[in-house]
Amino acid sequence: MKLSSHTQPGSRIRCHWPVQVIIKYSQSNVSSSARELGMCIDTRRRQSAGKGHAQYAQGWTLSELLISLALMGVLAAVALPTYTAQQRQTRRADAQSALQQLQLDQARWRGTHDSHAADLASLGWASDRSPSGHYLIAIEDTSADGYTLTATPTGGQASDTACRPMRLQVLATGSVVLSSGADLNADPSRCWRQ
């Protein structure tokens, strides 16, 4: 910011709120180009009574605090549902990987046996939980020709009602049918990432 040459030393010139420009120079020892420069200071500075030194106001006003809290509340109200939905969707990968691993285990089992395994223990699974523990895994409707694997959300994932349960069905023809939710014919793409 350039100041006019007729500005006197020590004079104040209004800058952007809450700062002012103070001309700090002595006409005798500063060149004319340097005299045109000023320094911005905070206008909230005040003199303390009787002490003679500058003191700055500290802290937030109540209205500033309330506005900040209101903004944080609005941001949280918008972000939290989106975050929760994203977390639910990410956890579905836990069910998908468990069911696909179980499908491979069933194929290995069927290579040496007359029918598919009816329980997880036969396939070497120590637990009925998915690797990250967000789903309960089960084998249903086993036969020599096919089987159905299900992953039912549990714990924090239990709120994922749109994809409860996730199913992987192997038919007698060898086809794999993916489904989720109460409707076996529902579009699997909303729950299954391909």
In a few lines, what is going on in this structure?
The chain is an alpha+beta fold and 194 residues long. Helix content is 28%, strand content 20%. The protein folds into 2 domains: 12-55, no CATH class; 91-190.
Write a structural description:
The chain contains two helices and nine strands. With 194 residues, the chain is α+β, with helices and mostly antiparallel strands. The protein folds into two domains: 12-55, no CATH class; 91-190. Strand 6 (135-140) and strand 7 form a beta hairpin.
What key phrases describe this protein's structure?
four-stranded antiparallel sheet
Shape: elongated
Structural class estimated from helices and strands: alpha+beta
Distance between the termini: 60 Å
The low-confidence parts are 1-5, 17-23, 25-49
What is the number of E strands?
9
What Rg, in angstroms, do the CA atoms define? Answer: 36 Å
Number of domains: 2
**What proportion strand?**
15-25%
Instruction: Return the average pLDDT rounded to an integer.
Output: 78
SSE layout and pairings?
Blueprint: E1 12-14, E2 19-22, H1 32-35, E3 39-42, E4 46-47, E5 54-55, H2 62-112, E6 135-140, E7 147-153, E8 166-170, E9 176-180
